[in-house]
Amino acid sequence: MINPQGLMIVLSGPSGVGKGTVRKAIFDHPDTEFEYSISMTTRNMREGEVDGVDYFFKSKKEFEQLIADDKFIEYAQYVDNYYGTPVDYCIETINDGRDIFLEIEVEGAKQVREKFPNALFIFLAPPTLGHLEDRLIGRGTESDDIIKNRIETAKKELEMMSLYDYVVINDEVDAARQTIQSIVTAEHHNRKRIEQQLRKHLLEVD
Amino acid sequence: MINPQGLMIVLSGPSGVGKGTVRKAIFDHPDTEFEYSISMTTRNMREGEVDGVDYFFKSKKEFEQLIADDKFIEYAQYVDNYYGTPVDYCIETINDGRDIFLEIEVEGAKQVREKFPNALFIFLAPPTLGHLEDRLIGRGTESDDIIKNRIETAKKELEMMSLYDYVVINDEVDAARQTIQSIVTAEHHNRKRIEQQLRKHLLEVD
């Protein structure tokens, strides 16, 4: 085995860009070999969402207890709700040689980057900010004020692109999915990640 | 258009690793969108090779005149023969926004890296050095001394892996082809390559 530790794959990007839709397309696809790290949140369940599938839905009190117990890789408060990534499953998965996929908000991604600088950071971007506005209005779950607020946040979040390894534009879900799969494949062949073990392996004359 | 200049893709690796076979698989595949930079060489044509398809076959005298005229991106003398990459077609192709693919020897790749640090460098590695020896013997075109010499050279060439961005093990040609395609797709989304233009593009509210 060339690369016994799995990759930590972080998909993030502005709120409303379609991270959840792309993540679903990835995990609905038969070629996907990585594990999904289900986030925890205190926000309300949206129509069609399932507890333990889309998110673990928790109360604020429960969430704050887990923070106190240091049970998150990252967590963030965003539009009055907490979002976080439980630590145990992620660590088990990569230590077991499998890739783990995190779909998280940009503030959380920043925390992951500090703790796991070798993780793979993919920024999902809207085709333009105009598209992002359309998506948020189309979703119909947020008020005008919240949408305006989100667009301002999105502008700031776009500035955070510089912290990512790759940028994928979400103009077509299946194209974005394919690109993300290619990025993961490529990173398994990133020389910096594999050189040490590869060198040892290649010099064995079998 | 996000990335108007094409990528220069450099596939290299030890002699005998199967660069030509992988390159053929890439260009026989309908998904391949990049252009092939046909190398020039003074070595003898092997059975099945075609002048102007596999290489431009030239005499030593002709090759040396082109060196004098500065008509190569890189050239190298290897096992008494010259191998080189003609410059004009490469530059035209990337300036035209298309990717150009170079399959070259490791000495040449080193020269390309000095001149084009932004090129994409992929190292094709044998599963082990034992496999490389088998391939060279199986090819049946080289004497025992040349094979021994090549294995020694290959060991030195493996040390050059550190100069590459990616390492692909050639244990199965079609798998290597797919991996290389994924790497090229990924690099088109490499944040460092595209950030500046992307930022300008995204902030347009259309």
UniProtKB/TrEMBL annotation, chains A, B:
Gene3D superfamilies: Guanylate Kinase phosphate binding domain, P-loop containing nucleotide triphosphate hydrolases. GO terms for molecular function: ATP binding; GMP kinase activity. Essential for recycling GMP and indirectly, cGMP. Coiled coil: none annotated. CDD domains: GMPK. Belongs to the guanylate kinase family. Residues 6-185 form the Guanylate kinase-like domain. Keywords: ATP-binding, Cytoplasm, Kinase, Nucleotide-binding, Transferase. PANTHER family: GUANYLATE KINASE, GUANYLATE KINASE-RELATED. ATP binds at G13, P14, S15, G16, V17, G18, K19, G20. This is Guanylate kinase. The keyword Translocase does not apply. It is an enzyme of class 2 (transferase). It comes from Abyssicoccus albus. It is found in: Cytoplasm. SUPFAM superfamilies: P-loop containing nucleoside triphosphate hydrolases. Its EC number is 2.7.4.8.
